[in-house]
Specification:
The complex is a heterotrimer of chains A (289), B (512) and C (87). Chain A is an alpha/beta fold and 289 residues long. Chain A is built from 12 helices and 10 strands. The longest helix of chain B has 17 residues, at 283-299. By secondary structure, chain B is an alpha/beta fold. The chains are: A alpha/beta (289), B alpha/beta (512), C alpha+beta (87).
């Protein structure tokens, strides 16, 4: 299990921010060649990000590169240049099934040419259109490389012609749909970033809401958001305590030769044990155990 | 000769005299003597208010070779030093030594006076801007003598630094020489650094733009020390004196460093009821205060005091009951000035009470934790805050060495690299503070604990803090930056760095 | 390869380097460098620029560089970008 609670966007043409990205504690770093880079600097950012990945140490953060949409002149150039330096994954904006298949295909050829192991470079579709959202199941299915989906609510609501709100009622359906499709393939569901840096309470509520629906992580647009995201996605003390008791009850039952057992008067079955195991693993990775 | 921080120091320095080498931070502190003060007493027939600076200079008997002192509470908004020195130059006097507790960019006019030989010597604790540059380039006749805040008080009280005339920039002053810093348009709060000057100079002149009738209330520097009072138009620019607010950094790397530092404090065993604490006013060190505040609140810890230069942020901690009291030698922002004026638990301290090693106990000795900065730190934990790695003077100890020596836990917080410069190096360009008084170095890429603090290393073993050796930190930095070209310099000595006890810890050489 | 026109890359922000490349009448690599870390790293920066130029097999070029403390990976990137823009 690898924790992917936070994915932090870093502008792809800013050397100062890129060289410090690895110390900020994010589970993933998204080096952004798309929205954060002016059209006139796309070449410059692409070269900078390529050299950064080749040279710099990002410590425990995995490196994901958001390329430009395949529908633009820049998208394929980005893949060709960036795949050579083996990032962990590419984030594909405005993803469609066709895009993911196309990316899969190019990556396969690059990997063969460069002598990389097959399927080394992973993919994260960015779901930010109604078309993409309705196809999210097939998008994930389109390539074995898909490790997670990122929901982009700003573009999605623009596409839908509706307003973004602090409470996010308008993206309830999108979150449910993405979370469920991701769960179907056992991949990560990464929630849209929260953009108001001054609204701390709104931010915490937003992460909690996403978590309660089944999103497994959240994108961040500012390093200050990372700790809060980790705190909310960390298993609670109660969850950890309960998980420990489940595991202990299971051991006791094994020792006593019981196949079926109960805890607090409730039957404990395989899903509950699996869940307890997951929580303890997560707690361990988060440094809580 | 080689001193205790392995620096080659001459036995005699032209324009300074015989050198006492630095022997160790705690080697030279048991016995001391204070000097005699000669004074001109006043009777009920005498009037202290004098019409102009020129006149007061004549009354004080200004002549070639004298030492004039100034204090830096008006910081980069100070008009007093320039105003007085202009008159000194106009009177045709030469060979003056300026003893200013700090020198800022606003004091640029000094450069001309240095070149003309009006000013031939400088004593200071901190120096930046064009004066620092001119001194680095060798324009000053004698080497600048760099003190610490506590060391300056020691030098004045012992007679090592004899002041002929002290000028006290006075935000408020009455016609009999009582001074405070809390009223007037140039209000700056505490006047702690000026107190040794007032007590030990031969003549003391209050320069004020807010002359009030007798008696002033409250009094910070009293009439018993002050010879003359001169009223001027303005003593300073309020914008340069105190900032409206001092802010916690938003830089994510600074915040990361601050968080790591706060975790060391939490794990150190010192963060409990009665905790005492000092930080500077920089954004990162303030962020340490913010994280420490969170921990204190969460664990319901009530500290005893915070000290030093005081910011609004520390005032908030006092007001929230996290500390019983503040010791304030200088206010950094308006909120601190306001609190110093109104809150009885926010008390002033003199530079001597703050950090002088040769009195009967300074406040720094009672500090649990001190948060410090660094321009460079070497693998022996020696810190440079005096010169850049290009050899130019750009700062000075201020209270750095004093608090490092006093506090139970001195933590240096800094980015591992700034621009392309590695901050952890083999040998610092100039030693300001000896490594034996530094306990921990916190950077965004790792923490190094001074090997002499085995107890602390043991304590932190079970934690998930990224602890490594300082050599490892150095290699991490070099891996990113490359090895900087060593700055070799055998030029003439332009500065003498005195440790707080008056021994010489390093010299500064002319930039080629 | 040949530098055909003036091209620029990079910014004046800290940790970055601003590069201007232009054709040069005669053969040779001419580098004019300003840097905030000139004393400590001036020679290394020039060498990095020169090596990057040579990797493109360029024999004649004039480069003006204003460095604000860039690391090597940034210097290489900015020089590469400027050269590609000038071809």
């Amino acid at each position: 299990m690898k924790l992917r609670r936070s994915m932090l966007f870093i502008p792809g043409n800013n050397p100062g921010m890129i060289q410090n990205a690895g110390v900020l504690g994010a589970d993933s770093i998204i080096l952004d060649l798309e929205d954060a880079v002016a059209v006139t600097e796309k070449d410059s950012a692409r070269i900078l990000v390529r050299n950064a990945i080749k040279t710099l140490d990002f410590y425990n953060s995995e490196i994901v590169v958001r390329i430009n949409p395949l529908s633009t002149d820049f998208g394929f150039e980005d893949i060709k240049e960036i795949a050579k330096v083996k990032p962990h994954a590419l984030l594909i904006p405005k993803s469609t099934t066709e895009d993911i298949k196309a990316c899969d295909d190019i990556l396969k050829r690059i990997e063969e040419y460069e002598g990389f192991e097959n399927n080394h470079i992973k993919l994260f579709p960015l779901i930010e259109t109604a078309y993409g959202l309705e196809n999210v199941y097939n998008i994930i299915k389109a390539s074995d490389r898909v490790e997670g989906v990122l929901l982009g609510a700003e573009d999605l609501t623009a596409d839908l012609g509706i307003k973004r709100s602090r409470e996010g009622e308008e993206i309830f359906y999108a979150r449910c749909k993405v979370a469920s499709a991701c769960r179907a393939f056992r991949v990560d569901a990464i929630d849209t970033p929260f953009t108001d840096l001054n609204d701390y309470e709104g931010f915490v509520e937003d992460i909690k809401r996403a978590k309660s629906i089944g999103m497994t992580g959240k994108a961040a647009i500012n390093p200050r958001q990372i700790d809060t995201i980790h705190d909310v996605f960390a298993p609670s003390k109660e969850e950890i305590e309960y998980a420990k008791r489940v595991m202990k009850a299971q051991e006791d039952a094994k020792r006593e030769g019981k196949g079926v057992f109960s805890l607090d008067g409730k039957m404990v079955d395989a899903p509950i044990i699996q869940r307890a195991d997951n929580i303890l693993e997560k707690a361990r990775l988060s440094g809580l155990l | 000769m080689i001193n205790a921080v392995s620096k080659e120091i001459p036995e005699y320095i032209e324009g300074y005299g015989k050198v006492k080498p630095f022997e160790g931070a705690f080697k030279n502190i048991n016995k001391a003597q204070k000097t005699k003060v000669s004074l001109n007493c006043k009777s009920s027939f005498d009037d202290k208010v004098i019409g102009s600076i020129e006149e007061v200079l004549k009354k004080c008997g200004l002549r070639d070779g004298m030492t004039l002192s100034f204090h830096h509470h008006l910081r980069n908004g100070d008009y007093v030093l320039n105003m007085v020195m202009k008159e000194v130059a106009r009177l045709g006097v030469k060979d003056i030594k300026v003893a200013a507790s700090s020198i800022f960019p606003i004091h640029e006019p000094l450069v001309e006076l240095i070149k003309e030989g009006v000013v031939t010597g400088i004593y200071t604790n901190y120096m930046s801007g064009s004066v620092a540059q001119a001194v680095s380039l060798g324009y000053l006749k004698y080497p600048v003598i760099m003190h610490t805040h506590g060391g300056r008080a020691r030098a004045i009280e012992s007679g090592d630094l004899h002041i002929d005339i002290a000028f006290i920039a006075s935000p408020s002053c009455d016609n009999y020489g009582n001074i405070n810093g809390v009223e007037g348009r140039a209000a700056c709060g505490s006047l702690g650094y000026a107190i040794p000057d007032a007590m030990y100079a031969d003549r003391v002149v209050a320069i004020t733009d807010n002359l009030l009738s007798y008696p002033l209330c409250p009094i910070e520097i009293s009439q018993e020390y002050v010879d003359y009072v001169v009223k001027v138009e303005e003593i300073g620019d309020p914008k340069g004196i105190v900032s409206g607010t001092t802010r916690i950094t938003k830089d994510p790397v600074g915040l990361k460093i601050a968080k790591l530092a706060s975790k060391i404090i939490e794990e150190s065993g010192l963060l409990k009821d009665g905790f005492s604490f000092q930080t500077g006013a920089g954004g990162t060190t303030l962020a340490v205060a913010a994280y420490v505040k969170e921990i204190m609140k969460r664990k319901n810890i009530k500290g005893s005091f915070a000290a030093g230069g005081i910011t609004g942020y520390i005032v908030e901690m006092l007001e929230e009951g996290l500390f019983n009291c503040l010791f304030d030698v200088q206010c950094f922002d308006l909120k601190a000035v306001e609190s110093y004026k109104n809150n009885r638990n926010h008390q002033g301290m003199s530079a001597s009470m703050y950090g002088n090693p040769h009195n009967k106990g300074a406040v720094v000795n009672m500090l649990d934790v001190m948060i410090l900065g660094a321009t460079e730190i070497d693998t022996d934990f020696n810190v440079n805050v005096t010169t850049g790695s290009d050899g130019f003077i750009m700062g000075g100890s201020g209270g750095h060495s004093d608090t490092a020596a006093g506090a139970k836990l001195s933590i240096v917080t800094t980015q591992l690299i700034k621009g392309r410069l590695p901050i952890v190096v083999d040998k610092v360009t100039t030693v300001t503070t000896p490594g034996e008084t530094i306990d921990a170095l916190v950077t965004e890429r790792g923490i190094a604990i001074n090997p002499k603090r085995q107890d602390l290393i043991e304590r932190l073993k079970g934690t998930n803090l990224p602890i490594m050796s300082i050599e490892e930190l150095k290699s991490l930095a070099i891996k990113m930056t490359g090895v900087p070209k060593k700055y070799e310099n055998n030029g003439k000595i332009v500065g003498v760095v005195e440790y707080r006890d008056g021994t010489v810890i390093d010299v500064i050489r002319q930039v080629q | 390869m040949e530098v055909k026109r003036i091209a620029k890359s990079g910014t004046f922000e800290s940790n970055d380097i601003y590069i201007i490349v232009e054709p040069k009448g005669d053969e040779g690599i001419e580098i004019n460098l300003e840097s905030i870390v000139m004393k400590q790293f001036g020679e290394q920066i020039k060498k990095t620029i020169e090596d990057t130029v040579k990797s493109f097999k360029i024999k004649s070029i004039k480069i003006t560089a204003k460095d604000r403390g860039a690391l090597d990976y940034t210097i290489k990137s900015r020089v590469e970008t400027a050269i590609k823009r000038a071809l």
